[in-house]
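Appendix B. Chain record.
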Amino acid sequence: MTRLLFILPLMFITFSAMADEAIDARTLHQQYCQRCHDDSIYTRPDTIIFSYSALVKRVHFCESMAGAGWSEQQLNAVIDYLNQRFYHYKH
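Structure tokens predicted for this chain:
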């Protein structure tokens, strides 16, 4: 019983920390990317994004220009969000 009283609070703290780390890429996209453009930039005929690596480079560039200060996890989340929603490149 004593062990259970010790383990339960630790589990709660761990799960709470994991929930805090969940990244909402859609919200990041709305807050930063859509300051400069809407979603039509991803579907325009004269796209400059022809591969997953080009998408990665462009998101890094745009994040820098927007001064977002995203972590690597946030960058990856937004890249994955854009890829799943618009590009569908394999990586």
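Further analysis of this model is presented in Appendix C.
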